[in-house]
Amino acid sequence: MPTRSPDAPLTHAGGVVHRLRDGRREFLVVTASKRSDHWVLPKGHIEAGEAAEAAAVREVREEAGVDAELERALGDTALDIGSEQQRIRFYLMRAIGEVPRQERRTLAWLEAGAAMQRLSFPEARELLRAAAAFLDAGESA
Fold first, then answer.
1. CA 117 to the chain's CA centroid
2. Model-wide pTM > 0.90
3. Stretch 7-26: mean pLDDT
4. Which of 2, 13, 71, 141 is the most exposed place for a label (fewest CB within 10 A)?
5. 104: pLDDT strictly greater than 50
6. Are 93 and 69 within 8 A, CB to CB?
7. What is the SS3 string spanning the chain?
8. Across the strands, what pairs with 70?
9. Is the pLDDT of residue 1 over 80?
C-alpha cells in the first residue's frame, strides 16, 4: 500500500484500545468491515465538524461496543486504499466499559504479542508495538 503525503488533511481516526484483565494487559482488535479475514484496529471516517478525538471514541464504540477514554495521540498513518486516500490519526485509549455495538464485527482482546500476530497490516502492528512500549515504560517508572 503506497503512503501519501503526511501533510494531507485527516480523514479517519481510531484507537489502540487496551484494558487490564486478571493482571494482564490486553489490546482490542476487530475484523475489517469489508474483509472479515483481515484483523485491524478500530477506526473510521471523521464526520464533518467532528474532532479526530471524538471520531476515535465514536468509532471504537460503534465497531466494538467498547467505551474508551483517550490517553494520548500515537501518530498518523497515511494510505491509499484503492481509490480512497486516507490519513488516519490513532490514539492510545483505555477501555472503561461496554456499550451496544452498532456493527457486526468479530472482536478479540489479546495480549500484545498475540494481537500483533493477529493484525493483518504492518502499520497496525507498529502502532500496537508503540502503544505497548509506552505502557510498559509507564509501568516500570
1. 15
2. no
3. 91
4. 141
5. yes
6. yes
7. CCCCCCCCCCCEEEEEEEEEECCEEEEEEEECCCCCCCEECCEEECCCCCCHHHHHHHHHHHHHCEEEEEEEEEEEEEEEECCEEEEEEEEEEEEEEECCCCCCCCEEEECHHHHHHHCCCHHHHHHHHHHHHHHHHHHHC
8. 93
9. no
Q: How far is Cα 137 from Cα 141, in angstroms, rounded to an integer?
A: 6
| CATH code, residues 12-140 | 3.90.79.10
CB distance 135 to 18 below 8 Å: yes
Q: What are the tens digits of pLDDT across the range 46-102? A: 999 999 999 999 999 999 999 999 999 998 988 776 777 888 999 999 999 998 788
Distance CA(73)–CA(15), nearest Å, equals 9
Task: Name the band, by pLDDT with cuts 50, 70 and 90, for residue 34.
Answer: confident
> pLDDT category, 2, cuts 50, 70, 90?
very low
Return all residues near 68 (Cβ < 8 A) that are at least 6 apart: 15, 17, 57, 60, 61, 93, 94, 95, 96
